[in-house]
Amino acid sequence: MDTPRIGILGGYGYTGKSLARLLLEHTDARLIIAGRNPQQARAAAQEWNQQFAGGRVCGVYADASCAHSLWEAFEGVDLLVVAAPVARHAETVARAALRIDCDYLDIVFSPRKLRILRALAEDISRAGRTFITDAGYHPGLPALLVRYAGSLLDSVEAANVFSVINPQGGFPLTGSLEEFVQELSRFQCMAYRDGQWYRATGLGLSEMRQADFGFGFGLRSCVPMMLEEMRALPQMFPSLRETAFYVAGFNWFVDWIVMPLMILGGRIAPRWTRKPLAYLLHWGTRLCANPPYGAVIRLEACGWNGCERQRLCVQLYHPDPYALTAIATAASILQYLRGRARKPGLWFAGHLGDPSEAIQDMQAMGAKYQHEMATIQGTCPFCGR
Ligand SMILES: NC(=O)c1ccc[n+]([C@@H]2O[C@H](COP(=O)([O-])OP(=O)(O)OC[C@H]3O[C@@H](n4cnc5c(N)ncnc54)[C@H](OP(=O)(O)O)[C@@H]3O)[C@@H](O)[C@H]2O)c1
Question: Distance, CA 235 to ligand 1 centroid (Å)?
Answer without folding.
Answer: 33
